[in-house]
Specification:
There is one protein chain. By secondary structure, the chain is mainly alpha-helical. It has 2 domains: 80 residues, no CATH class; 43 residues, no CATH class. β1, α2 and β2 form a beta-alpha-beta unit. The longest helix is centred in the last third of the chain and has 31 residues. The chain is elongated and about 95 Å long. It starts with 17 loop residues before the first helix and ends with a helix.
Length: 173
């Protein structure tokens, strides 16, 4: 006898890695616009883009070149929209590339702050790190530290010698 589809022993919930999000994504959202106010259609490369998320009308591409079910699965060469049911918009996902990593507010502002507990930081210090007012040192490269210390000492010596020479020239005048 076959088992029912909802029998399971364990369930795991975890955060998606950036690589997972890239795999699941159908395209990159590059514009903040949603809908064109004149045409009332989604903006290209915007938050509701038909090329990324799928058509708004069943079996019809954005530009209207392909209509009807007989073109099912065809990607329009003009607008880049795949001819499919509009229901696919509920399943498809896009991504946004950011210049710097961000923390979701659920993990930083919740009580207790999950990221704060993980990093052993107070909410105030966590906010400072998240908003770039402070930073955390996670690893120190001892060899690089030694090289930088030596270069700083040599630079300090040359600056000190230059200052002394400048003072002597000023005194002699």
């Amino acid at each position: 006898m076959a088992q029912a589809g909802n029998d399971f022993d364990t369930i795991t919930i975890s955060l998606a890695s950036p690589d997972d999000v890239q795999k699941w994504s159908w395209g990159e959202v590059t514009k903040p616009e949603t809908i064109n106010y004149r045409t009332l259609r989604p903006e290209k490369d915007g938050l509701f883009c038909e090329r990324i998320f799928g058509p708004t009308k069943d079996w019809e591409c954005y530009c209207g070149k392909y209509k009807k079910i007989r073109f099912r699965g065809v990607t329009c060469d003009r607008c880049g929209v795949e001819v499919a049911r509009s229901k696919v918009r509920r399943e498809r996902m896009g991504h946004i590339k950011l210049a710097a990593p961000v923390a979701h507010i659920w993990f930083s502002k919740g009580t207790p702050s999950r990221i704060g507990l993980l990093l052993d930081l107070s909410p105030r210090n966590l906010d400072r790190v998240l908003y770039f007012a402070q930073y955390l040192v996670t690893e120190i490269d001892e060899e690089l530290k030694e090289q930088m210390t030596e270069s700083l000492h040599s630079e300090l010596e040359t600056l000190t010698l230059q200052r002394e020479e400048n003072q002597e020239t000023v005194r002699s005048k």
